[in-house]
Write a structure and sequence with these properties.
The chain is 29% helix and 39% strand. By secondary structure, the chain is of the alpha+beta class. It is elongated and about 70 Å long.
C-alpha cells in the first residue's frame, strides 16, 4: 500500500529499511524518538554491559529485572580477580547509576550483597545505598547458608550524593 502527497510517496513496509535505521541513529534525530520506536519488541528486562580495559574483558555491569512502569532495576557487577581492589567497582557503579537515573529516567536502584562480601557492603553504603532488609540464609555456598542484604537508593538520594562528590 502506498499514499501520495504532492511529490512525496508514503509506502507501507513490512520490514524497516536499513536507511531508516541509519537516519534514526543520527544524533540530530535520535533524541526525538520514543522508546516504543527504539524498542519495538518491548523494553528490555535487562541491560548487560561488558567491561573492557585496554581491549581486555575484565567483567560485567548490568541493570537486571528492569521494571519500566515502576522505574526500578537491580544493579549487578563482577570483575576478574586481578581487577578487584583497585576502586574500579565504585567508579563503575557510580557511572551506571548516573546512566540509570539520568538517561533511563529510573527512580530506584536495588542491589543484593552477600553477607560475607564486606568490600561490596562498604562500597554500596559509600555510594549512598540504604540497607532495606535481609533475606535470611538465602545463599548456599560451600556447605553453608548465608544472608543476602538488600540495598536500595532513590534518584533524589543519588542526586544529593553525586553533587556532594562532584561539586
Amino acid at each position: 500500500m502506498s499514499l501520495k502527497t504532492g511529490t512525496l510517496k508514503l509506502e507501507l513496509t513490512e520490514k524497516r529499511p536499513e536507511e531508516i535505521e541509519q537516519i534514526a541513529k543520527d544524533p540530530r534525530v535520535e533524541p526525538f524518538l520514543t522508546e516504543k520506536w527504539m524498542y519495538p519488541e518491548g523494553m528490555p528486562e535487562s541491560m548487560e554491559f561488558t567491561i573492557y580495559d585496554n581491549g581486555e574483558v575484565i567483567g560485567q555491569i548490568a541493570l537486571k529485572s528492569i521494571r519500566w512502569f515502576n522505574r526500578k532495576a537491580e544493579l549487578s557487577l563482577f570483575l576478574k580477580p586481578a581487577f578487584q581492589g583497585r576502586r574500579l567497582g565504585g567508579k563503575l557503579l557510580e557511572s551506571m547509576m548516573d546512566y540509570a537515573f539520568g538517561e533511563l529516567n529510573l527512580y530506584r536502584l536495588e542491589a543484593e550483597v552477600l553477607e560475607y562480601n564486606e568490600k561490596a557492603i562498604k562500597m554500596v553504603e559509600m555510594l549512598g545505598f540504604t540497607l532495606e532488609g535481609k533475606l535470611r540464609q538465602a545463599k548456599y555456598h560451600k556447605g553453608k547458608y548465608f544472608d543476602i542484604f538488600r540495598y536500595g537508593i532513590l534518584k533524589h538520594e543519588f542526586d544529593v550524593y553525586y553533587k556532594e562528590r562532584n561539586p
